[in-house]
Amino acid sequence: xxxxxxxxxxxxxxxxxxxYALDLTEGxxxxxxxxxxxxxxxxxxxLGLDDAALSDLHYTLLLKDVGCSSNAARLCxxxxxxxxxxxxxxxxxxxxxxxxxxxxxxxxxxxxTLSERFRALIDVVRNGGEYSRELIETRxxxxxxxxxxxxxxxxxANGILDLDEHWNGKGLPLGRAGGEIALAxxxxxxxxxxxxxxxxxxxxxxxxxxRQRSGSWFDPALVAVFEQVAADPWFWEGLGAGDIEARxxxxxxxxxxxxxxxxxxDDLAAGFAQVVDSKSPYTAGHSDRVGMFTxxxxxxxxxxxxxxxxxRRAALLHDIGKLGISNQVxxxxxxxxxxxxxxxxxxxxxxxxxxxxITAFSDMAVIxxxxxxKLDGTGYPRGLDAADLSLxxxxxxxxxxxxxxxxxxxxxxxxxxxxxxxxxxxxAGSAIDPDCLAALERxxxxxxxxxx
Length: 452
Hints:
mainly alpha; Hypothetical protein af1432; 452 residues; single chain
């Protein structure tokens, strides 16, 4: 397999394509973050922001939802609801009491027994304000942290941190008001609402909602600027264009365009691995550990340094499609029903679709697509067999299974290392590659010897 490298790949291109993964976490239609970037950058240009500020705004808009996966499990726990559905529909709520109560009644515990739903509703009505603050604080703080890890500026981090603050001081989590709120965050929130209502009801619906929230959610001066932007039919044409990704990449100020090197690609992959692993308490650190076990196997198989680096990066991103799966399914303690199992089987295809969009990561898409396939053809999603599975896939599949067995899961406790290896020996030759398993066992034995 030929690996792509970072030469002449723009950071804006990589982040723009990765933003599709963030759309999944929010239950939004494909291209939501890109459309928000199109909207917000036009506002920033009319405001007369300099190139440095426009560059920071560009990445704030693309990464505004980078912390969203971190509150998904807690949201499901509190509201007994599908996190993706709740996040999607909450975008239409304006925080007036009738809308909030209607949203809570229509989304809390709808698939639970009557008594369970009643208990959840009472709890949410009593403690909803506290829960909202907790969920948004988790999302915003985690998003800012990940943005910093991926080398973005404090301006970008602060824009993500303040995303849910409102002009009138009634937003969350800190209740900041007016000019206390980062300008990039004020533009991002306005852009987000414009896109949600544009997708639902066209330009008129978007304009109506923006005007209604001016002075409460939105800075009236920014609303006035958006009115100027919206008067140009070309703006709306671009917002609905099929080449929106290319248009958004072109909006980045050329002087601040960054070409990513191999080290930066590692940081971006590590950052998005955190987005994936933050989605469930049961997968915290999973991608990092799969990367480590992958590297241990690759070393035992005497693979070269460049290949090992590529495999570690592929391991970090192998589960990115899980961002499109509800935590009601991912964290379910009991047996999955047929529909839930079908949903789980979607995540390799989602991962493949996301990675195929990214020039620098496109050759890793096959790993996302095949890491749950088995040598005997009984895996998913396509039922491929040994003839279709590369050594790369076989290595990462063994690393993935080993971590899954030795980590706690909602349906069982973690297995001791020795027990996990016994289970995997029974799978060798049918599900997993015997040589890769043998390499893992040698690496584990070597670590044990060093620790003794």
